[in-house]
Amino acid sequence: MQIGIIGLGRMGMNMARRLIKDNHEVVVYNRTQEKAKIMEKEGAIGTASLKELVQKLNTPRVIWIMLPAGPIVDEHIKQLSGLVSNGDLIIDGGNSYYKDDIRRASELKSHGIHYMDAGVSGGIWGLEIGYCTMIGGERSDFKHIEPLLKTLAPEDGYLYCGPHGAGHFVKMVHNGIEYAIMESYGEGFEILQASQYRDSFNYHDIAHLWNQGSVIRSWLLELLESTFAKDPHLDKIRGYVEDSGEGRWTVLQAVESGVSAPTIAHSLFKRFESRQDDLFSNKILAALRNEFGGHAIKIKKN
Questions:
Q1: Catalytic: which of 178, 183, 246, 291?
Q2: Alpha helices, DSSP H only, in the chain?
Q3: pLDDT digits over 81-127, tens only?
Q4: 178 an active-site residue?
Q5: How far apart are the C-alpha atoms of 132 and 136, rounded to whole Å?
Q6: Catalytic residue among 171, 183, 283, 291
Q7: Whole-structure pTM value
Q8: How far is CA 90 from CA 11, 18, 113, 120, 264, in A?
Q9: Closest CA to 180 of 85, 254, 92, 277
């Protein structure tokens, strides 16, 4: 199947690679041409502008945007809406707010352009493992792009979640849960670090042990093993943790829906706190975000 991908960041580039490996025809565009040239060497069709990308695609076109949530997505959609044809499909695969999806779908529909939202989880490991993908939009559009989803996702790793916004809504809640789980691990290791036994503890071994049949085993804990193998006491990492929006939106949604979500709310506020204090628990969060998503970490200066 043919697809255009806009945005060759940590995930967009590896998604393109995964699609190429499964013999899909991938046309790519990135603001900096170096990444498009890299993908050309790996079998993609590189383009130097959005106009050229659209020209390289057959109708009905499928264009997947992998850009940071916010104005930059709207800017690209606005440009694309003046270039694509009636019946073409634009997919936002970033971490956009679901209410923006509802607005965009309505605006594009008036121009005869289809729209879908795709919540994508997998981080820098998606190339090897696959991307868990949550889809919102028209079911007929979902069926149309299903060959792409089967390539991108692991087995049973994609789901049609409902109408426009549903995919990003599910991904939003997914990330809120992720915040809370990571905070829980961080606090647990903080207690270990503060105990009288700290000098006898090997955190890598503890993380590895807990992954051997314990009820708190998880992929995130496996990533902690990797983290502690490289930096046993996280001496090189500042406990400074960013938030990319989804946790805030999850807490706001809980308030709007009248749902008690104190653990997720607490984990969000702890991230705010991390920008003031260098707690060991926050080092855990910073390290985990780097391991699964390649997110930047603040290096501690000597």
A1: 178
A2: 10-21, 33-41, 50-56, 71-81, 98-109, 126-129, 139-152, 166-193, 203-210, 219-230, 246-257, 262-274, 280-293
A3: 999 999 999 999 999 999 999 999 999 999 999 999 999 999 888 99
A4: yes
A5: 14
A6: 171
A7: 0.89
A8: 18, 20, 8, 15, 32
A9: 254
